[in-house]
Each structure stands twice: as structure tokens, then as C-alpha cells.
Amino acid sequence: MTSEYGARWNKLHAGIDIANREANVPVVAITDGTVIRSYYSSSYGNVVFITHNIDGQIFTTVSAHLEENTVRDGDSVTKGQTIGYMGNTGRSFGKHLHFEIHKGSWNLSKSNSVDPRIYIEF
Predict the structure, then answer these.
(1) Alpha-carbon distance 114 to 84, whole Å?
(2) CATH architecture of the domain with range 6-114
(3) Which UniProt keywords apply (predicted)?
(4) Nearest in space to 100 (alpha carbons), one of 72, 52, 64, 76
(5) What is this structure's pTM?
């Protein structure tokens, strides 16, 4: 873990950063869902957005700075399925995964982001 959720550089760091120097580190879906966007962003780099319905509550996960995305818009994914490989694309300072969870839909202000550690043990 290289960076936690919360204030960073006078603004909200809406996710956590996890680094691993090994080659071809897979990034997996945290649970079943549907890929709503898989593309290249100038800030997130290669990024995958997945929507999940967990007990009637919608969550959106964001996996960013990937070396490669292995899923496309509209794909169904299952828990543990590889969605890409950890990388250093976009506005990034070394190989890592930037991971966000949003309660509801993702929005530009990231107003409904939550600390991923509430939901997932790392």
C-alpha cells in the first residue's frame, strides 16, 4: 500500500494505491459486475469502471493506471476475473494500481467515493 484514501496534496485522493514491482501483475474484479467503461484517460491512464449490484445497492469500482485492459465496455465479469495488469499509465509516478469504490455511480467530483478498506481487506 503506497497511498491511502483521504486528503493528499490539498485534495481528496478518492482511492488507494497498491504497488508491486513484479512483471504482469493481474488486477481482478472484486465481485461480479458489468464493465461500464474501459478506455485510456489522460489522468487515469488505462482504466476500467465496473458497476456492481450488491444486495440491491449499486457500487462502482475504478481500477486505474493499468498497463493493459483485458475487458471491454459491456463485458460481464466475475469475482476474481482478470480485468487488466498493473501499470504506470496516465498521471502516474511508478507502477501501481489506483483503486476506487463509489457507493452509487462514479461522478467527476467523486462525491460518493468511499474508503475501499471498509469493504476489502488488503
Answers:
(1) 22
(2) Distorted Sandwich (2.70)
(3) Hydrolase
(4) 64
(5) 0.95
Question: Terminus-to-terminus CA distance in the chain, angstroms?
Answer: 8
Cell 481500477 belongs to which residue? 63
Q: Which of 8, 28, 16 is nearest to 86 (CA)?
A: 28
How far is Cα 71 from Cα 59, in angstroms, rounded to an integer?
18
Q: Which residues contact 93 (CB under 8 A, 6 or more apart)?
A: none
Cα–Cα distance for residue pair 29/9, rounded to 1 Å: 29
Reduced to 3 states (helix: H, G, I; strand: E, B; else coil), residue 116 is: helix
Which tens digits make up the pLDDT trace of 38-58? 999 999 999 999 999 999 999
pLDDT tens readout for residues 14-25: 999 999 999 999
| Mean pLDDT estimate for the chain | 95
Report which of 89, 85, 97 is spatially closest to residue 24, judged by C-alpha positions: 85
Q: Maximum Cα–Cα distance for the chain, whole Å?
A: 37
Cell of 26: 493481474
